[in-house]
Amino acid sequence: MSTFAITSVSEMCARYRADNGFDAAVDDHGQILLRTGSVDGIQLPIGLAERVLGELMRRDLPTPVIANHRSDFWMLLTQGARAADRSVPRFGALYRHRVLMTAAGALITLPGPDHRIRYWEVAPNGTRRPPFNELVEITLRLAHCMPESA
Question: What is the pLDDT of residue 6?
Answer without folding.
Answer: 63
